[in-house]
Write a structure and sequence with these properties.
Structural class: alpha/beta
Number of strands: 30
Radius of gyration: 28 Å
Distance between the termini: 47 Å
Strand content: 15-25%
Largest sheet: 10 strands, mixed
Helix content: 25-40%
Number of helices: 22
Length: 777
C-alpha cells in the first residue's frame, strides 16, 4: 500500500477575485479536500498556499478556476511548489498591504435569489431590509474607495457590524463569510422618506419608508430615490399627468424615459423579448434593455413619445424589489415605474444627498434617502440586441453600472502606462498598463462644470484603484474638446493624438482581440478629420497603428456649424441645394415648422465657408431626411431625429432608393444626391413617411455593404468593422451586416462597448498601446 505524498503549493489568482466570495470559496474547498494553508487578498488579487495530499492539491488548483463563485472571473492561476511546513488547518489571513494595487474591482451585482428569499421572508431577521447582500450580490464598485477590497476601504467603513452580522462574517459555512458590505437593520444603513426640507415624512398606514414612497407614487407624486450609483426620479409609468409633470420639471421634452418593472413577465407585457433580451434583463448587470414596444403596453404616452421601443429594466437592489412589490400591491400586478436619471436636463446625475436635495428639490415631491455614501456616481447601463450575421448579439448604448470596472484586454501590450481621454459627448476615459485596460463609467457630455469635475475625479479614482501612473496620454484631434484640453494639461507625459474615426475602428478591433487590418464603415454625427473638415460618414482601411481614408459620404455644407445639429432643418436645406444644384424654397410641408425668412437666410449662409464647414457626416444626412419628412425639425437630445426616423420605418419593407457609388478623386463616394431627390419626389407624391423612411434606411444599408465589399476586395481584406453612433440603429446595422455576411465577409460590431463615443477612449488606448508597444520578451 503506497504512502500519500505531501506537497505544498503557492498560487497567485488573478482576475475579478476580490469582493466576490473567493476567499471563503477557497476556504471551503480546502476544508472539503482536507488541505492546510492560508488565503489572503492583496494588491494583485488573491494569494494562497495549500498543503496536503498531492492529488488533493492538484484537484484544488483545478477547481479554483472551474468552480469559482458566480461573480468571480478567474483569468489566471499561477502555481509553484514551495517547501511543506507540516501546517494544520486552513485560514483566511488579514489582507496584505504595500505595493501597487493591481487587483480587479468587481462591478455592482443585482440581488441574488438567496438574499431575495430572505428579504421577503417575514421570519427572517432581514425581512424587508433594503441593504441585504452577500458575497454573491450587492454593491461593489460604487462603494469601493481603494484596494485591497476590505470594509475599511469602502463606504461601509462607518457601520460597525453587530454580533450577529460579525458571526456570519466570521463563519466559513455562511455565504456572508467576509462579505464586506454585510449589515442588518440593527447595525447597517437606514432609509428615510422626506420632503425637500429633509424632515421625515409620515405616510398614514405605511409600515416603513419604502411603503410610504410606494403609496405616494401610486397617488401620482414624483419621488427621488437614492440607489446604488446615484438618484433616480420615479413616478407611476401609467399616470399620464405624473409623467408629463416629470418631463416639465426635469426639462426633458422628448427623450424617452426608462422603466422599471417587477419581473420578466411584467416586462414581456410592455416589450417583445427574445432569449437574449430575457438573459440581459435577468443578468447580474441588470441593464436597461431597449426592445420593441407592444401596442398594448399600458404606459403613459409621454413615457417614450415617437419611439418604437421602450427601455425596461428589472429591480437590481433590495430597495427596488420592495418598492416595486409594494407598488404592485397597491396599484395592481405588473405595475411599472418611470425610473430616470436623477438630474435636470443634461447635468450629471446627483449622488450626494445635499446636492440631490438642492438640484432635485424643484423636481421631486419627496425623497427616499439612505445614509450609505456613494463613492462613485454611476448611471444605469443601456443595451439593445441586434442580429449580425447568424446570431443576435448585444449592442451596448451606454456602459456603466453592472459592467464597470470589468477589465477589457488590449490585443497589444503598451510599453508605458497610459490614459485615454475619450471624446466630449458620451464621455468615458480609459486607463491601461501592459495589455490590461479599464474603461471608466459613463460620464456624460462635457458641457457642464459638474461633468468636468466628474471626469477629472473619475480619472483620479481609476488611477488610484489600478495603480496607473500615465506616461502616455491619448486624446482626440479636436482642439476644442474639453477632453483634449485636459490631456494637454497633463505634465511629463507623451501625447498621442488619435483621429476620432480611427479610434472608433480601433475600439471594435481591439474589443475583438484584433490588430487589423480591416475595412471600417464608421458613421456618426461629427468627428474632426485630418483635413480639418467635419467627418462622419467614413470608409477607413487600417488597424491599430494607422489608417487610410478609402471613402466617405458625399460632402455637403453644414449651415451654421453646430447650429445644424440642434436644428436638422438646416441640413435639409443644405442637402436640397446639393441635390438640385441650387437653393430650394421651403417645402410646403415644413411651413408650419420653419420660418421662411430663416430658411432663405440659411440658404445663403450655406454657401459661406466661414460659417458652414464641409461635412461628410452620415448622422447629418439622417437629420436632413428626418427633417424633410417633418420629423425632428428641431431636436432636444442627441440623435433624436435619426431615432424618430428609424421608429417611423419600423416593420416597413418598401424597396430602396438609389444611392450610387462614385469615384471622388482618391476615395469612393456614397453619392446621396439621387437619394435626396427621390425622397422629395415621394413626399411630394404623398408617399407615407413610413415608406420613405424604410426606403431611405435600405438605400444607406445596401450602399454601405456594396462600398465595404468593394474596398475590401480592392485591399485584399476580409473583415469589416461597423462602428460609430449611427450604427446603434437596428435597421441599419442588421441590413448592412446581412449584406456583408452574404458576401462572405467577416463582420465585427461592438459587443462590450458602445458603438458611439462611449467606446472612443478604448480605441484611443488601443492605438496608443500599439504605437508604444512593449518589446517582445
Amino acid at each position: 500500500m503506497g504512502t500519500a505524498v505531501t506537497t505544498r503549493v503557492r498560487a497567485r489568482v488573478e482576475g475579478t477575485v476580490q469582493g466576490v466570495g473567493f476567499r471563503p470559496f477557497a476556504y471551503r474547498l480546502a476544508g472539503e479536500l482536507r488541505l492546510a494553508g492560508w488565503v489572503l487578498n492583496d494588491e494583485l488579487g488573491v494569494l494562497l498556499e495549500v498543503e496536503g495530499d498531492e492529488a488533493a492539491v492538484d484537484e484544488f488548483i483545478v477547481r479554483l478556476r472551474s468552480e469559482a463563485p458566480p461573480l468571480a472571473s478567474v483569468e489566471r492561476v499561477a502555481a509553484e511548489p514551495v517547501e511543506p511546513r507540516g501546517e494544520r488547518g486552513f485560514r483566511i489571513v488579514e489582507s496584505s498591504r504595500g505595493g501597487d494595487p493591481d487587483a480587479l474591482v468587481a462591478p455592482d451585482a443585482a440581488t441574488c435569489d438567496d438574499c431575495l428569499a430572505e428579504l421577503l421572508d417575514p421570519a427572517d431577521r432581514r425581512h424587508r431590509y433594503p441593504f441585504i447582500n452577500c458575497t454573491n450580490c450587492g454593491p461593489r464598485f460604487t462603494i469601493v474607495r481603494g484596494v485591497p477590497y476590505d470594509r475599511p476601504r469602502t463606504t461601509m467603513a462607518g457601520f460597525e457590524m453587530c454580533a450577529d452580522c460579525r458571526r456570519e462574517y466570521d463563519d466559513p459555512a455562511d455565504r456572508r463569510f467576509h462579505a464586506q458590505p454585510n449589515a442588518c437593520p440593527r447595525c447597517g444603513p437606514r432609509l428615510v422618506l422626506t420632503g425637500s426640507e429633509r424632515r421625515p415624512a409620515e405616510v398614514p398606514g405605511a409600515r416603513d419608508a419604502i411603503e410610504g414612497a410606494a403609496r405616494r407614487l401610486a397617488e401620482g407624486l414624483i419621488v427621488a430615490v437614492k440607489g446604488l450609483g446615484g438618484f433616480h426620479l420615479a413616478c407611476s409609468a401609467a399616470d399620464e399627468e405624473a409623467v408629463a409633470a416629470l418631463r416639465e420639471r426635469k426639462h426633458r421634452e422628448d427623450k424617452p424615459f426608462a422603466l422599471m418593472v417587477p419581473d420578466v413577465v411584467a416586462a414581456s407585457r410592455l416589450v417583445e423579448l427574445g432569449t437574449e433580451e430575457d438573459g440581459l434583463l435577468r443578468s447580474a448587470a441588470r441593464p436597461i434593455v431597449l426592445a420593441p414596444r407592444r401596442r398594448s403596453a399600458a404606459v403613459a404616452a409621454a413615457v417614450a413619445p415617437a419611439s418604437a421601443e421602450l427601455g425596461v429594466m428589472l429591480p437590481y437592489t433590495p430597495l427596488h424589489h420592495l418598492l416595486l412589490g409594494d407598488l404592485c400591491a397597491i396599484a395592481g400586478e405588473g405595475a411599472a415605474l418611470v425610473m430616470t436619471s436623477g438630474n435636470v436636463s443634461d447635468e450629471p446625475i446627483a449622488y450626494q444627498d445635499d446636492d440631490a436635495l438642492a438640484r432635485l428639490g424643484p423636481v421631486a415631491d419627496m425623497f427616499l434617502l439612505h445614509d450609505r455614501p456613494i463613492e462613485t456616481r454611476t448611471d444605469d447601463s443601456v443595451v439593445r440586441v441586434v442580429r449580425t450575421g447568424r446570431a443576435r448579439r448585444p449592442l451596448p448604448i451606454r456602459r456603466s453600472r453592472g459592467y464597470v470596472p470589468a477589465r477589457i484586454d488590449l490585443p497589444v501590450a503598451a510599453g508605458e502606462p497610459l490614459l485615454a481621454c475619450g471624446a466630449d459627448l458620451k464621455s468615458t476615459f480609459c486607463v491601461a498598463k501592459g495589455s490590461r485596460a479599464w474603461v471608466g463609467h459613463h460620464i456624460g457630455d462635457l458641457e457642464h462644470y459638474a461633468t468636468h469635475r466628474a471626469f477629472r475625479e473619475g480619472i483620479a479614482h481609476f488611477e488610484r484603484l489600478f495603480a496607473v501612473r500615465p506616461r502616455v496620454v491619448a486624446h482626440d484631434l479636436h482642439p476644442g474638446y474639453f477632453s483634449t484640453g485636459y490631456a494637454l494639461e497633463r505634465e511629463d507625459v507623451e501625447l498621442v493624438g488619435v483621429q476620432h474615426h480611427h479610434a472608433h475602428l480601433a475600439a471594435v478591433l481591439a474589443e475583438h482581440g484584433l490588430e487589423g487590418p480591416a475595412v471600417g464603415a464608421i458613421y456618426d454625427g461629427t468627428g474632426y478629420g485630418t483635413d480639418g473638415a467635419v467627418w462622419g460618414g467614413e470608409l477607413l482601411v487600417g488597424g491599430l497603428r494607422d489608417f487610410e481614408r478609402a471613402g466617405s459620404l458625399w460632402p455637403v455644407r453644414m449651415p451654421g456649424g453646430a447650429a445644424a445639429i440642434r436644428e436638422p432643418w438646416r441640413m435639409a436645406c443644405a442637402w436640397l441645394a446639393e441635390a438640385f444644384g441650387e437653393a430650394r424654397p421651403l417645402p410646403s410641408r415644413l411651413t408650419a415648422m420653419v420660418d421662411e425668412q430663416r430658411w432663405r437666410a440659411v440658404s445663403r449662409v450655406g454657401a459661406s465657408e466661414a460659417v458652414s464647414p464641409v461635412t461628410t457626416s452620415m448622422g447629418r444626412l439622417f437629420d436632413a431626411v428626418a427633417a424633410l419628412c417633418g420629423i425632428g425639425v428641431r431636436v432636444n437630445y442627441e440623435g433624436q431625429a435619426a431615432i424618430e426616423l428609424e421608429a417611423a420605418a419600423a416593420g416597413k419593407a418598401a424597396g430602396a432608393y438609389e444611392l450610387p457609388l462614385v469615384e471622388g478623386g482618391r476615395r469612393l463616394l456614397l453619392d446621396a444626391r439621387p437619394l435626396v431627390r427621390s425622397v422629395v419626389a415621394d413626399l411630394d407624391a404623398g408617399v407615407p413617411v413610413a415608406v420613405v423612411s424604410a426606403r431611405f434606411h435600405a438605400a444607406v444599408a445596401d450602399a454601405t455593404a456594396r462600398a465595404c465589399a468593394a474596398v475590401a476586395a480592392g485591399r485584399g481584406v476580409g473583415t469589416v468593422v461597423l462602428g460609430g453612433g449611427v450604427f446603434q440603429n437596428r435597421l441599419l446595422v442588421e441590413r448592412v451586416a446581412a449584406g456583408l455576411d452574404a458576401g462572405g465577409l467577416r463582420v465585427l460590431t461592438p459587443e462590450r462597448l458602445p458603438a458611439g463615443d462611449g467606446g472612443i477612449s478604448f480605441g484611443q488606448a488601443a492605438v496608443a498601446a500599439a504605437l508604444t508597444q512593449a518589446p517582445a520578451c
